[in-house]
């Protein structure tokens, strides 16, 4: 069975694939100082709740945008799974061209998303992934990662408002009842929610105009699902895009990291 680890700046996803289906998924807060032993204790407990054990995992793939965490995640695989993990950006072949000035600068998550999107959708694509940052990635019809846009994420914007303005409270992002807010909270909610809708619609329109060909827009990530039904600029919402990409990359590298 495969252990897929997808680590963002805020959360880390651990998912188990049995060769046919994803049978378990868990999220934990990203902490760069967490050791391999701490991960193993946490993961062992969760696996046992599903009737599984670490010894059943015979393959591991890691995608991380937190370089200081990779050492501990790699040791988790080596020490407790007894396998050398595949690490995006280090020892794997993606199977897609990376057409940017410095391919080494492309985030692991963005490359994995490009693989997952091209696998599921034909033609030229825009992949919007909203987490700590909101990224807009252009994926060509041949699967190539062509670059894109990085903007602050929704929760980062809310945090900045709260921390920089003494009178503004910490709030949760949600769709307000009206665009024009009637109190401080709905003013903030409207600014962030409809502001990000405008961001998405404006940037998608500019990308399509510059690209010059029809494009399908895919939304992924936990935050972007909040915008479903609020804009026509996103054609499909696909929460499994990243783990689909990780599974495909694992299949494209069959001789690395097996027991």
TrEMBL record:
Location(s), subcellular: Cytoplasm
Pfam family for this entry, one: Pan_kinase
Assigned EC number: 2.7.1.33
Pathway the protein acts in: Cofactor biosynthesis; coenzyme A biosynthesis; CoA from (R)-pantothenate: step 1/5
Keywords tagged on the record: ATP-binding, Coenzyme A biosynthesis, Cytoplasm, Kinase, Metal-binding, Nucleotide-binding, Potassium, Transferase
Co-factor binding comment: A monovalent cation. Ammonium or potassium.
Binding, substrate: 107-110, 184
Binding site for K(+): 129
Catalyzed reactions per annotation: (R)-pantothenate + ATP = (R)-4'-phosphopantothenate + ADP + H(+)
Keyword presence, Ubl conjugation: no
Binding site for ATP: 6-13, 132
Endpoints of the signal sequence: none
Top-rank taxon: Bacteria
Cross-referenced SUPFAM superfamilies: Actin-like ATPase domain
Role this protein plays: Catalyzes the phosphorylation of pantothenate (Pan), the first step in CoA biosynthesis.
PANTHER family on file: TYPE III PANTOTHENATE KINASE
UniProt record similarity statement: Belongs to the type III pantothenate kinase family.
Subunit structure and binding partners: Homodimer.
Protein known as: Type III pantothenate kinase
Organism: Brevundimonas balnearis
Upper classification of the organism: Bacteria, Pseudomonadati, Pseudomonadota, Alphaproteobacteria, Caulobacterales
């Amino acid at each position: 069975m495969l252990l897929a680890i997808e680590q963002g700046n805020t959360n880390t996803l651990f998912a188990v694939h049995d060769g046919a289906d994803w049978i378990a998924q868990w999220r934990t807060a990203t902490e760069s100082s967490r050791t391999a032993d701490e991960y193993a204790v946490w993961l062992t407990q969760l696996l046992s709740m599903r009737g599984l054990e670490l010894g059943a995992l015979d393959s591991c793939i890691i995608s991380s945008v937190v370089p200081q965490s990779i050492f501990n995640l790699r040791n988790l695989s080596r020490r407790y799974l007894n396998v050398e993990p595949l690490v995006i950006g280090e020892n794997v072949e993606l199977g897609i061209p990376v057409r940017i000035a410095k391919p080494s600068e492309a985030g692991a998550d963005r490359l994995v998303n490009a693989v997952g999107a091209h696998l599921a959708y034909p033609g030229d694509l825009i992949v919007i992934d909203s987490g700590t940052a909101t990224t807009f990635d252009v994926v060509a019809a041949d699967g190539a990662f062509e670059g894109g846009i990085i903007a602050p994420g929704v929760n980062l914007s809310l945090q900045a408002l709260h921390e920089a303005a003494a009178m503004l409270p910490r709030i949760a992002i949600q769709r307000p009842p009206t665009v024009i807010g009637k109190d401080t909270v709905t003013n903030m909610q409207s600014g962030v929610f409809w502001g990000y809708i405008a961001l998405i619609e404006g940037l998608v329109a500019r990308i399509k105009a510059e690209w010059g060909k029809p494009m399908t827009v895919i939304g992924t990530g936990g935050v972007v699902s909040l915008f479903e039904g609020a804009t026509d600029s996103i054609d499909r919402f696909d929460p499994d895009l990243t783990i689909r990409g990780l599974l495909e990359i694992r299949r494209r590298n069959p001789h690395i990291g097996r027991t």
